[in-house]
Amino acid sequence: MLNDDIIKRNHVNIQGHGTQPILFAHGYGCDQHMWRKVAPAFENRYRVILFDYVGAGRSDLNAYSPTKYASLDGYAQDIIDVCDALQLKNVLFVGHSVSGMIGLLASIARPELFDRIMMIGPSPCYLNDPPYFGGFDSEGIDGLLALMEENFFGWANTLAPVIMGNPDRPELAGELAESFCAMDPAIARNFARATFLADNRKDLPKVTVPSLILQCTEDAIAPVQVGDYMHEQLANSTLVHMRATGHCPHLSHAEETVIRLKKYLSTPLS
What we know:
Elements: H1 3-9, E1 13-15, E2 21-25, E3 47-50, H2 72-85, E4 91-96, H3 98-109, E5 114-120, H4 138-150, H5 152-164, H6 170-182, H7 185-196, E6 211-217, H8 224-233, E7 237-245, H9 249-252, H10 254-266
Parallel strand pairs: 2-3, 2-4, 4-5, 5-6, 6-7
Antiparallel strand pairs: 1-3
Helix pairs in contact: 1-2, 2-3, 4-5, 4-7, 5-6
């Protein structure tokens, strides 16, 4: 595809006054708008790049392929395509949830593109596989996917509060549910299967790019044990336990998220 086609396909937006690119990648069922409380804090120093995965937000739905996006590799290719289209170098990548793993996969394929990978609530595998604890048993994941098939909008409104946490701020879960419901149900189900059935644990030792893991407390999707596991498996990784609760601190605890990211970026790599 031509560079302009990719920029349009992924609804790429660029802000900021710096030269080094910082690329924000949204999580499952979301779009670039979810970064509105965090991304502007980096515009003075960096070239801030936002995009939507194909099938999400204002991306070109005509470019969606159920086969390509049946695995996380298809989404990793979106990241690589955007980087190539913009001729990016030394990319600072920030990925929420499943985008953390997607970013790592992109860095394995093209390590020369990236300077650092920063992940918020990542997980290489959501399934419990003792002694590994991913947070879900097989019946739970099967039930989740079955509910999506039977009643997608009911699933969205049931799962959003679980993912968001922070029950004292129901408007946050409401926004997440609305974001889920805005997706094409067939695309959402395909992305959910690619996310919750993935097992990328064996890919972690292949990562050579320095990384940050931001681990929230009371995260129902990526428990503390997952963050610890990723830190053990990723060479040159930094693990930070946040005070923030839930799975979406860039929405619920944006100020702390910005502080943690900036502190990591200000720390020289060893």
